[in-house]
Amino acid sequence: MPTMETEKSNTSRAEELKQLANEAFKGHKYSQAIDLYTQAIKLNSENAVYWANRAFAHTKLEEYGSAIQDATRAIETDPKYSKGYYRRGAAYLAMGKFKDALKDFQQVKKLCPNDPDATKKLKECEKAVMKLKFEEAISVPESQRCSVADSIDYHTVEVEPQYTGARIEGDVVTLDFVKKMLDDFKNQKNLHKRYAYQVVLQTRDMLRALPSLVDIVVPEGKHFTVCGDVHGQFYDLLNIFELNGLPSEDNPYLFNGDFVDRGSFSLEVILTLFAFKCMCPSAIYLARGNHESKSMNKIYGFEGEVRSKLSETFVELFAEVFCCLPLAHVINGKVFVVHGGLFSVDGVKLSDIRAIDRFCEPPEEGLMCELLWSDPQPQPGRGPSKRGVGLSFGADITKRFLQENNLDLVVRSHEVKDEGYEIEHDGKLITVFSAPNYCDQMGNKGAFIRFEAPDMKPNIVTFSAVPHPDVKPMAYANNFLRMFS
What we know:
Low-confidence stretches: none
Structural class: alpha/beta
Mean pLDDT: 94
Number of helices: 18
Distance between the termini: 43 Å
Strand content: 5-15%
Helix content: 40-55%
Radius of gyration: 23 Å
Shape: globular
């Protein structure tokens, strides 16, 4: 039994740790803050504030599953602590679970009836749920839906005489067009709808023809570059091309998902990647990330940005094209590249991934969901996901998957890393993330990986963020979510 003196000392030390954690949090060092809050909780687990604060730090790292668990513990510890409900509601919201979020904000309002902030957030949440119900009521079942892409003939879209931007002559996307388009984007000019339709529709035709798992062959003496999440950071994408050259047949790239959302230049990013794909299909490969989905785009900005810069029709068109993106790539039969990670079951073969019918919105479980959402963990075996979707998998799972499929390495993205990359699982797994100073606040570097054939050893290049015009991340995001970011 701990003495009264020991308890007092533990309580006092826990408070010191909380203060240190708060400082780390203010400095955007969220992982460090989590470690310090964890130490405080070990010394005094009956303080709801520690749980709620750690939940907030998890939210900043997009670990919404962990945030919900911690906020729930805060509520269990002190059912009258409004911040517990507030933090859990914010995490539910970030996952698109508006109905669960609404219940928590109703509780916040009950506990703080005179708080204008609580009133405002509850009203916004009620609006979001009403909108969701309305959309559900008028939605057409998937099987009866007509393809938007099939209804568009870009040849009939008129280009006004005063338009001075990039133009595609005929049906062929050329390097000159792409360069002019990049210059226009740099100067915050939009591409005309006629050419945007052409680029997106031609990309759709190419992507539809690909298998769910694409094999890439890099000839001896040639190189190949893999990039991670770009998340609408167009000016950092241009910097990658400055550092490593434009995509071409001799300088091919794979962009490993999460091209859009968060950053407010997502349209520029996706049109750039698609235009290079049209110009030379072997110059650029594109994989689906968890953010190439309707539910994420609705919350994190891409839908709002497309509506603002182009039109509602393009919102539907991009959603369709995202369903055509392949789910994984294998380079030279040795390097498995996927956005998220591995699986909740053993024995998954590359042929199983090839067989996935990917032409749909990502499901909430199963192989496709896990490819897009899973994360590695330091301990062996499998565990629950920090995100609340997918799972966490250990080095033994990685090793077994590689052995069973005669592969050497897993490359994945999906997580911010301070140095832009992290090597884990006994060197058998590399995370690469290509959005430096993510959301203008994380202070991380970006990275890309160059492989040289035939040895295919990963050469990792890191880089820092470059300036961009004064448009904040999430500028087009769901209003309600911006209140919490």
